[in-house]
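User: Please run a holo structure prediction.
Assistant: Happy to. Please share the sequence and the ligand.
User: Here you go; the ligand is tryptophan.
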Amino acid sequence: MEKTILTGIRPTGRLHLGHFFGATKNWVELQDKYQSFFEIADVQALTDNFDNPTKVRENVREIAIDLLSIGIDPNKSIMFIQSMIPEIAELTIFYSNLVTMARLYRNPTIKTEIAQKKAIFGNHGESVTYGFVGYPVSQAADITAFNGELVPVGEDQLPLIEQCREIVRKFNSIYGDTLKEPEPYLSKTTRIKGLDGNDKMGKSLGNAIYLRDSEEIITKKIMNAVTDSNKIKKNDPANPDKCMVYYYHQLVNHTNLDVVCSECRKGSRGCVQCKKELIAHMMNFLKPIQEKAHYYENHPEVVDAILLDGTKKAQKVAKETMKKVKKAIKIDYYS
Ligand code: TRP
Ligand code: SF4
């Protein structure tokens, strides 16, 4: 039997290159090797967007469109909406007894995220909610509801998987062997830098290229990307390793990368031309994705049918898990 993978994504915005090269590109390959569950984590998105339900609602379908367009195949894998699986919420309640507040506050992912909130909101960052601090518990429910064995995540999420493993061990030791202990699946993905050279590409940082950005938008963004600041005149030699334009050439230019590099170093290449070439390569790379996305944008009913079908399949699996869990906790009344 093939192993089961489960991973999730928060529907808070469309996919950008950071998501693609950092995670979802891999999901497309994994679905050939594993029974794959891809969760659109709307409940988790609400933990810090509870006051903006419209944003979460709208992005569920947008994320689904993006995932289908990059090649997530509903015939191979199960894509579903988290909130439509009430068992996840139920499991969260039972797991919450197995986790101390101290342990949650010590979770490095939570710690970092709280620190970021404080940095952004000042003292308002102090008002973190119960739901937010508890989202690792809910994420453990996400994983175990579907017997997830491997969880493809980035390094920043490793503490969440560790927390899930602890919950599983505690559950099994108290209630008997019931749940599977998952393992993180770290893949050879790369964290993608932003157009501004920031280590992370992110929506809130305003330095992202989205998979569905138009040529006009991409032109604007690339024309403003950070280049080697020592290059003033067109024929000054420069260091491509200090240039975000070259950085993106490396991602999407599979034809004349060496030339770009050597010409930049020699000073025989102007940045404007170099950027224009990158725009062409970028559009080439995005074109097949955007064509598929265009189809799904025009056929929202197809997207909804895929989501509904995936969610029904996911519901079946979660129901089975719930039965076992209730039996183990001895709350399987009248069944
Ligand atoms: N926390 C993940 C993120 O922010 C998303 C996610 C939700 C997830 N549920 C999951 C990842 C379950 C792995 C497993 O990227
Ligand atoms: Fe960057 Fe190209 Fe300019 Fe070199 S020539 S600094 S790689 S934009």
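The chain is about 55% helix and 5% strand.
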